[in-house]
Amino acid sequence: MRLLRRQHIPLLATVGMLIVLFSVASALYPGFASLRVVANLFSDNAFLGIVAVGMTFVILSGGIDLSVGAVLAFTTILIASLVGAGWHPLLAISVALVLGSGFGAAMGWLIHRFILPPFLVTLAGMFFARGMAFLVQAQSAVVSHPFYDALGDLRLQIGPKAYLPITALLFLLVVLVGIVIARRSRFGRAVYAIGGAEASALMMGLPVGRTKVRVYALSGFCASLGGVAATLYMGSGNPAMGSGLELDAIAAVVIGGTLLTGGVGSVFGTLAGVLIFGTIQSALVFDGRLNSWWLRIVIASLLLAFILLQKALARSASAHP
Amino acid sequence: MSDSDPALLSLRGIDKSFPGVKALQDVALRLRAGEVHALMGENGAGKSTLIKVLTGLYPRDAGSMRLAGQEISPASPRQAEALGISTVYQEVNLIPALSVAENICLGREPVKWGCIQWHQVRQRAVKALQRLGLQLDVTARLDTLPLALQQMVAIARALEIDAKVLVLDEPTSSLDEGEVEALFSLLRRLRGEGLGILLVTHFLDQVYAISDRITVLRNGRLVGEFLTAELPRLKLIGQMLGREPDAGQAAAAPSTDLTQVSRPVILETKAAGFRGGIQQLDLSLRAGQITGLAGLLGSGRTETARMLFGIDPATTGSIEIDGVAVPLDSPKAAIARGLAFCSEDRKREGIIPHLSVRENLILAMQAGRGPWKKAPLAQQTELAQRYIATLGIKTPSPETPIRNLSGGNQQKVLLARWLVMQPRLLILDEPTRGIDVGARAEIDRLIAQLSADGMAVLLISSELEEIVANSQSVTVLRDRRAVGHLQGSTISVAEIMKWIAHSGEEAA
Known about the structure:
The complex is a heterodimer. By secondary structure, chain A is mainly alpha-helical. Helices cover 73% and strands 4% of the residues of chain A. Chain A has 14 helices and four strands. The mean pLDDT of chain A is 91. The longest helix of chain B is centred in the middle third of the chain and has 16 residues, at 177-192.
């Protein structure tokens, strides 16, 4: 048994990249290498991260989910307006999570039942959810409820002046659960199998249809949970929030070493991908001189580099089996 | 006659239609416990369809299925498996990117509190492979194994459940002789344990080596069930073809043409090779001559083809065409110099399943013209119709998607694709793999015709009989090196095997 396998190289490259980026930023900017900055990495990127974990499963299964940003926005404004109408926040959150999962499941069912391309079904889903978000309420609204404020103030001290707020905890929890589902559940393994070779998975007797529906339900759930995290983080809901978030999530997943064609990748890699996003963003803030659009340019280069790396690995693998 | 036998699995009056085709009509099959039952038939006889009905991939239109006396109607492979019907398909249907252990246990992993117990998965996989006499690193990714071992993993998976019926669809097409023997001794043991084994294969020798009974299908109908010991080969072929085969045709080896040596050499390799593929290869391919490339699995047969066609370019030595050294560093360069290559992997490297017969057929020609000079539709259709007629491709129309054709007819379309280019050298890698007797004879005849018209042909096959029957010159490979060259009347199966076995210690 070899300790280092070819398929681990993308993940190692991602983690290595994260370490390099963080070290360079720490060397350049005094105060960067601190627990507080690390804690902020998790809290500032919590909703992107939560959404990206759901996206990881979709991409592993060989699909794509473009609706997540819109579903997140819908969730934030739904919670804001339900709480505004006097609902208890817990009830509002539950309703939002059920709606998000159900919406994902419905898209998954369409994709499976009518053999539709996921790209188009979730594109329609994206427009639909965005429209519904504006239908609920066209302007952003503050979520104000004593329980919600208390929830938002929950935090875990991890060092002097360093706290993990509830959003960061939620993100970490989702990552952990995601890792367990991906590695240790039959559902998770079926997702890998379907993304690797769908026809074979069917012939091997795996529940292909059910798994697909669940994958999109899971992504919808993560998108609305991301919405919950967003309302806790910002204290408000906004129907225009999260446009382009689905693409950030896809980028984070791919930088995390998951093949866009499905079947290969990991939730842990996605965590690293999200943290790379966050590190670049924080470094730009620390620098203060550079325009924030540099984030996009750096991410673009990284994305390209990782796609090339994967291609090179795939080629060398097929040349030397 | 056998109605009183207690059948383990009994299918009766099975009908199955697809739009425009009656794939199965009133088909019956009786599989007994403790027998190996061969299912035989030409392409389009309905073997694959019957198996897919049996394993729940296709719903049947009519008829009944009974397993151990119980009426069954599996609606998916999963349900069939749960009933005890396990299937290994012709093309390895596993997940390349997952580990060996996982491929064996996928979908039935042992779980505790909803969590897969990986150490148990690995133990079960090791045990399942041991039953086949194999020891593998079960944590390795499946796609790091050669095709033959992947096939064994698929069988291990099928046996890992408590199967009553084991269906094997062309299990031996990617195995070499030793592996086939290992598989057969395993099948005999399983038969002894009371398993009912349904075997689909095109290899007559294997049918007679292993099976107890034979069921023959033709054109979607049942021809009959026979005891293998009571059915002579010629009679079996007659049943499959629906006519008495003309006995002389199969055995006739092409006579040696002494003038062949003087035919012009089209392509010559001089100590050509590439790392991990083939080494120090000297090969002369002459116009109007069929050169066979023989050797065991992994001896470098396909690698040679890939090198000549520029997929894995030679890194050492040289390749000369018409006596001039040329860099064959891409398929495009090879095509430009008049080479054509029919790959062994029809499904992945050959056909484009959703495109029509016509579109598949003109693909190479269109690629040669470039994207801006599209051949007029009338010309395309004319070409397609001409080759459909000359090669006898059985298709409802040139516009039928190629995936709806049988394997033999797909192969003919691929041949036609290259013939349109009027190549000078045609490389055929396993042109008759997974193709039945009748279509096989047609393809062999076609190759002989092309060669007679002056084309150089390099024929790669794992079946020595096919090499011997078709080639005027044979190069024998062993461990990625050429170990022998045979000409004319010295070509025989025994001689080739001698070279493979002894690497020719003064064997000639």
